[in-house]
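Q: What does the assembled structure look like for these inputs?
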Amino acid sequence: MIAAARKFRKLRLDQVSRDFGTHNALKDVSLEVGRGEFIALLGPSGCGKSTALNCLAGLLPLTAGGIWLDDERIDRLPPERRGFGMVFQNYALFPHMTVRKNIGFGLRMQGRPRTEIDQKVEDALALVHLTEQGAKLPGQLSGGQQQRVAIARAIVIEPPLVLMDEPLSNLDAKLRLEMRAEIRRIHNSVGSTTIYVTHDQDEALSLADRIVVLRNGMVRQVGTPGDLYGRPAHPDVAEFMGYRNLLRSRVTASGNGTATVQVGGATLSGVPLERLADGEAIVAIRPEDLTPRPGGPIAATVATTEYRGRDFYGTALTADRTELFFRSEQPVVPGETLYLGAEASRVLIYGSGSA
Amino acid sequence: MTTLSGSALQAKVLADRPPLRLLLAQRGLDGVTLLVLPAVLFIIALFVYPFLYGLVLSLEPKVGDWLANYRRFFSEPFLYDTIAKTMWLALPSTLVNILISVPVAMRVRLMRRQRLLTTILVLPITLGTVLIAEGLLNYLGPQGWLNRTLVLIGLVSSPVRLVHNYWGVFLSLVVSGFPFTFLLTLSYITGIDASLEQAASTLGANARARFWHIFLPLLAPGLAITFCLSFVQTFSVFPSAVLLGAPAGVTRVISIAAYQAAYEQYDYSMASAIAMIMGFAQLLVVVLVLAARGLFYRGPAGSAKG
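A:
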């Protein structure tokens, strides 16, 4: 029997590792996923997120560790016996089958009766708003339509787990936003568990219940989008979450949930996210939180500016040539001197040991 | 803005029209097109002219009216039987080669040291039919190691006859045709996007189902082309039919008939007629196979746009 034909309570990755020759694509990844969750695996290219997904699908064997669905070990089952739905980055639609045949393929492989297949395929087509296109070949569809066929094909078999490998990366910006909402809508209406691989933090933040940040094959942080956005556990994660200002600094005072650091000749107060030893630290500030203000502690000369509609973003150089990314509501011109500052609650301080 | 008089306007329109050179270039005709000339001359000199020459020659028999050669061919069993005999060699050996190539290529595509194995499998292509024939005569003959071994282990009491009959020619056609069939098949198989197979497996298809539902339909048009190309090669079998077969009996193929007409009876007209018939017999099979190919999906075997 297919492992996943029954409802599960918990999917568990237990110290999963995968090597390619001497390269460790995944190192001791452990993770628990509850039924119905939407999990995003987030990380830069080469961080092992697609490897993790392929290991889950059964397309890559593990080098070490195990994958468990409740009490059943599934990491040695071939993909066809896991019964997980997978949406590939290039969609991988069967070019010689019509949209209906593509969607019905999984049900056909399960040996379901003809009438049931037809009914479910129609339901799936309606779910992804493609009823009109059912008789076409994939080559006759647009990218967004192909993408929806790929989703329909993966979920029509009612898999307990849906795996998506950067499904939006081939679409243009507008379609990407539309499909993002669509994917979340389908996830909610089907009630499946979804693991979604992406390198786009906006996608992860807007879609996921929980985000797993991977770096060099290791889990850096697991948390809700709010956790990751507000309190990234590591400068790497902070960088990924849009903290473009990652500055080397010296701790001058710490205690009581605040700390003071020296950056580019100026003194800043912030929130320490780790126990700080005296000495080196890394300060993380989002460009949108670093703004010119009266009495701003950091004096910097504007180098470049960029108009973004509501406000201006730019880079500025301090006296010791540190490059800062800032936001300004007023127009600024290169060469102008600004006094930049940020709210203490928006300044995150990491010990230098985590660099 | 000033208004232009009629003739001035016409002149302006003419001046605005892109030059002829550009118009031709847009239709793909420019200086580079001339590079096709040597190839065209080559084809005319080596294919069109000999074909037309042979056709005309075949219609000018030594005796009788213009169709006498063809009438003679189709009235003498000694001659018209050669078509069936050649088909009986070429069709099964081509089919067997494809049936062997597909599973081997399916396996080879997954291997990391593909090149070494491919080289070994393709080596026979460099040997030439005569060398293969000599080798098979030695190995499979009554005193060859195969028969000696079979007799030694008591599987047969007297040597099995494998040369100077149908099977000798059949085997040599398989050996010499395999590399070609295999290489073509391998390139068609590796042209199928690996993610299609992965997608099928995540949808519950086991290896057998993946082959029947994904690989075979996408491969069929390519296999049809492979079949045609290999078939045409084997249909013109001559050396191995003479060396390994029974050229007066079961392996008297059509090319032997043409050879005898030309160089034993010095009837070039008859030989040309036989060559024409041979060409049309091949064409018939090729057209049938290609028509069947039209029933399959023939688009790219990638995953749609991707």
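The mean pLDDT of chain B is 88.
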